[in-house]
TrEMBL record:
<feature type="transmembrane region" description="Helical">
    <location>
        <begin position="175"/>
        <end position="193"/>
    </location>
</feature>
<feature type="transmembrane region" description="Helical">
    <location>
        <begin position="52"/>
        <end position="73"/>
    </location>
</feature>
<dbReference type="Pfam" id="PF07690">
    <property type="entry name" value="MFS_1"/>
</dbReference>
<feature type="transmembrane region" description="Helical">
    <location>
        <begin position="213"/>
        <end position="237"/>
    </location>
</feature>
<dbReference type="InterPro" id="IPR036259">
    <property type="entry name" value="MFS_trans_sf"/>
</dbReference>
<feature type="transmembrane region" description="Helical">
    <location>
        <begin position="249"/>
        <end position="270"/>
    </location>
</feature>
<feature type="transmembrane region" description="Helical">
    <location>
        <begin position="277"/>
        <end position="294"/>
    </location>
</feature>
<feature type="transmembrane region" description="Helical">
    <location>
        <begin position="20"/>
        <end position="40"/>
    </location>
</feature>
<protein>
    <submittedName>
        <fullName>MFS1 family protein</fullName>
    </submittedName>
</protein>
<feature type="transmembrane region" description="Helical">
    <location>
        <begin position="362"/>
        <end position="383"/>
    </location>
</feature>
<feature type="transmembrane region" description="Helical">
    <location>
        <begin position="146"/>
        <end position="169"/>
    </location>
</feature>
<comment type="similarity">
    <text>Belongs to the major facilitator superfamily. Set transporter family.</text>
</comment>
<keyword id="KW-0472">Membrane</keyword>
<dbReference type="GO" id="GO:0005886">
    <property type="term" value="C:plasma membrane"/>
</dbReference>
<feature type="domain" description="Major facilitator superfamily (MFS) profile">
    <location>
        <begin position="15"/>
        <end position="386"/>
    </location>
</feature>
<keyword id="KW-1133">Transmembrane helix</keyword>
<feature type="transmembrane region" description="Helical">
    <location>
        <begin position="300"/>
        <end position="323"/>
    </location>
</feature>
């Protein structure tokens, strides 16, 4: 069975387990804070909706600038490992300031220092991983990327559950300390990891993707819809059900399926094409957003995570590989570009719901529209490709007849 052979080859690659552990622990550290961030700013510091948005947006904008700038030049560097190590140290310093914030200004400074360098971490980790597997096991490099991303996701959702319990025991301060511990673990593992830089390259299986600006726009819109959910669902859940820890449990429901869906999505993308799988995932996302708008049942909020889990697996796995394959010769830039797209989507997503007054399920009308437009774009691209392939087949048939 192909998947069994691929998994055995993956775990036999030297350094693969270290990369898996690195991303898993980093995911735990990130997941501990994620669902509590906006709630911390609102409940502990008393910030209003607009102030929370400004804090998130300012930190994210700095993150975007650093990510794409360093991503552009990182392929010229012999070693990429130094970048996430430096970023990890800066994030810990920022979190210390953020943890001791007394109001809007110090929260803004702390979160900016904590978040701005973090874009280097994900982008450069996956650039390092692609280099690592392309030189040691080129035929499974795409699946290796997906499994590493799934490892981060599993860690992230483990962190959600851990964060919810830490919050009950040690409040927001304990949650922030847990986030700091995640960055510290990442730095230690990075220092121990031996980066692959000058080894002989093995030819990768498959081919690159042609550059498509319209598909990048479609992915941006899907990412934007997901970003709106990521920030505002926790606030809506708090409004509807009154308990901050519920959001951690809702998000953690995705972990049960995400590793399976990322694996399935990767093999299906290789068989049917990335764009078709993105289309299916986008349909599931649209169904989820419409459910958020129309339902106030906690049971339904949990049940719909099954559909959304597939979408997230496709967005973070299949879409990431699709963007990276547009720049196979520039792994650092390709990985950073995908992170930059996600960051741009988040920045847009933070502001769009401000057009809807208050914190209500109505905010999910916006991601519903974004997902619908993105699906229309992907559908048009697939239609044009099918039409072009049909014309090509007819031309070849005419040549044979002549």
């Amino acid at each position: 069975m192909q998947i069994t052979r691929d998994v055995r080859k993956f775990v036999s690659v030297h350094g693969a387990k270290t990369l898996l552990t690195m991303l898993f622990l980093y995911g735990i550290g990130t997941g501990i804070l994620a669902p509590m961030n906006a709630v911390y700013l609102n409940e502990s510091l008393g910030l209003a909706k607009v102030q929370i948005t400004i804090v998130f947006a300012a930190a994210l904008f700095c993150n975007m600038v650093i990510t794409i700038t360093v991503g552009w030049v990182s392929d010229r560097l012999k070693s990429k490992k130094k970048l996430p190590v430096l970023a990890g140290f800066l994030c810990v310093i920022g979190l210390f300031i953020y943890m001791n914030a007394a109001g809007f200004r110090t929260a803004l400074i702390g979160m900016t220092i904590a978040v701005a360098p973090s874009g280097l971490i994900m982008g450069q980790l996956f650039a390092m991983a692609r280099n690592h597997f392309s030189r040691r096991a080129g035929d499974i490099v795409e699946m290796a990327q997906l499994w590493l991303r799934a490892s981060f996701s599993v860690g992230f959702f483990a962190g959600l559950l851990l964060g919810a319990n830490i919050f009950l025991i040690a409040s927001f301060r304990g949650v922030l300390l847990g986030n700091m511990a995640g960055y510290a673990c990442l730095v230690v593992l990075l220092l121990l990891y031996k980066e692959t830089t000058g080894a002989r390259e093995v030819k990768q299986a498959g081919i690159g993707e042609p550059f498509s600006l319209i598909m990048l726009v479609a992915i941006l819109m899907l990412s934007c819809a997901d970003a709106i959910r990521g920030l505002y669902l926790q606030l809506v859940v708090l409004q509807l059900f009154g308990k901050p820890e519920i959001m951690s449990y809702i998000w953690s429901a995705q972990a049960v399926f995400e590793l399976l869906f990322m694996t399935m999505g990767g093999y299906w993308a290789a068989r049917y094409g990335s764009k078709r799988i993105l289309l299916v995932g986008g349909c599931f996302a649209l169904a989820t957003y419409l459910t958020y708008v129309s339902s106030s049942s906690l049971a339904i909020f949990f049940a719909i995570q099954l559909l959304y889990s597939f979408f997230v697996s496709v967005l973070y796995g299949v879409a990431m590989g699709y963007v990276q394959r547009m720049f196979l010769s520039r792994t650092g830039f390709g990985a950073s570009l995908y992170v930059f797209i996600s960051q741009t989507a988040s920045l847009i997503g933070y502001f769009l719901p401000l057009f809807i007054r208050g914190i209500t399920p109505k905010v999910f009308v916006i991601p519903s529209v974004l997902a619908a437009v993105s699906l229309l774009i992907i559908g048009m691209v697939l239609y044009r490709e099918k039409k072009s392939d049909s014309k090509g087949s007819m031309s070849q048939a005419q040549v044979r007849i002549r």
